[in-house]
TrEMBL record:
CDD domains tied to this protein: FN3
Protein's name according to its UniProt entry: Titin
Any Pfam family: fn3
Xref: PANTHER family: FIBRONECTIN TYPE-III DOMAIN-CONTAINING PROTEIN, MICROFIBRIL-ASSOCIATED GLYCOPROTEIN 3
The organism of origin for this protein: Meleagris gallopavo (Wild turkey)
Domain Ig-like: 284-375
Key words, A-Z: Immunoglobulin domain, Repeat
Ranges for domain Fibronectin type-III: 87-181, 186-280, 382-477, 481-578
Amino acid sequence: IMRGVPVPTAKWVTDDTEIKTEGRHKIETDNYSTVLTIKDFHDLPNVGLQVKEAKRSDHGKYIIAAKNSCGHAQGFAIVNVLDRPGPCQNLKISYVTKDSCMIAWESPVDNGGSEITNYIVEYRQPNQRGWSIVSSDVTKRLVKANLIENREYFFRVCAENKIGPGPCIETKTPILAINPIDKPGEPENLHIAEKGKTFVFLKWRRPDYDGGSPNLSYHVERKLKDSDEWERVHKGSIKETHYMVDKCVENKIYQFRVQTKNEAGESDWVKTAEVVVKEDLQKPVLDLKLSGVLTVKAGDTIRIEAGVRGKPQPEVAWTKDKDATDLTRSPRVSIETTSDTSKFVLTKSRRSDGGKYVITATNTAGSFVAYATVIVLDKPGPVRNLKVTDISSDRCTVTWEPPEDDGGCEIQNYILEKCESKRMVWSTYSSSVLTNYANVTRLIEGNEYIFRVRAENKMGIGPPTETHPIIAKTKFDRPGRPDPPEVTRVSKEEMTVVWNPPEYDGGKSITGYILEKKEKRSLRWVPVTKTAIPERRKKVTNLIPGHEYQFRVSAENEVGLGEPSLPSRPVFRVSAQNQVGLGRPAELKEAVSPKEILGKFFHFTVSFSMQSLFALFLTYFMSQTLNFISVNLSFRTS
């Protein structure tokens, strides 16, 4: 709305540019108002600026200027057309590795009239049409994308405000998901490992830096002294970290060099010192790869390895305990010797395999000897000198000596077992005996026992050692059997019996004797006394004349009564008898002193009076008929 006299003229300006009626713009001005219309705008009452189907480019500051001869006036209107944001700027992909990369960009020049709320990042592979979301909620202008190794990727990014997402900006070329590759580093530790008359053997180590590529190869070259030209000694590239340079001229001076190569290029050269190509002599050296003593369990494999050096190549021999026996003859032994090592393997080891192994390396320059001590642990051997002592009626002592072979480790304890001979069932008396003896109790008197002992170490229990059977009884015994007693005197009503002590008294003194008698034809023995006889002589009375008697004697000590002796020879009761009656008994000075016994042949020496001669024969023939009697008689006159 304008007021002024004379009628002012109106002019619309935006961005320092005057707006004229053309294109989408239409200006309608009368004496009192001016209206700027952008094409297809709806009519809005009392508004000087009307907009329909506005574009984002329509936003800005619109200025209305009115001017007449009296002066001028100016007004303005700020117009903001909201829209989606514009495209992001400067999309870049960096830090590409085999499994990730970093995506960065700048904000759109036009944010669409409202603040950017987030960014949407997507990727696709060249053979795909659809896009996959890396992230749809990114507020910063940097994001990490996870990749799959050796695949190519396109990326795109768009900004989003409250109106919606704007147009995307895409990468023009795909990126490959691999680690960045650079030129590799130089080979490490290049040296001459061996040389001969016409060859040099080079060795080196992979470079510490491979440039990001595992596909490394090497070039090897040589040159003669005083020559400027290097000669490639192989075709293509070498994958190994060693090379044998042959066809050299003996006694000539050479220099060698090696470089590393990958997809990005080649490293600098690494050179050796100048060297004369000829065969060197080096005394053998063995580097035993064993610290201290090698200890294995029985049944395990013994492995010994030694590094070998020397020129020319040494011959390696393995022996044991300075024994000249060739170990390779054993089916359990295998020996593998290469240019720089010698390996000894013995399977299913035994206790006897322990000892000192001797490794000898020999060449024309000399020899070298190394030693390896091996201990094979096994169960202990049997105990020695197993004895049973101090036997009594209910206990005994079992002693032994440790095994000759302890199995290579300390004896922890012993296991003592016992069994009764009549049952032959073994039971453990103790499984934790720590000494070399054990006191066994609770035996049953009179039973026969066998004991066995086994040693135990950390590897297990050794074989048993058994004792001879023993009987549980006191160490003292009953007396042995005396010799048969003798009758030394025969009278009318008694006989005198004497005897000798037994050879074995049972370890205790004889306390007495039991004398028994019986008639010859009787089976029952009758004690002569009710108590033991302390002496070795006894007068036996109350005998029946004309009857034959036999005697036997048993010795007794504190332990008990021993076995009886064998019976004495039969002796008869003698008395003289005539027509009137029984006369005075004859005197038998040596009645029971036999000089010879042969069947029923007796030899007596008898001394008696002449008056009793006939009574003697009469009484004798009445009691028993004998085959033959020889009597030496000495007569004396009464």
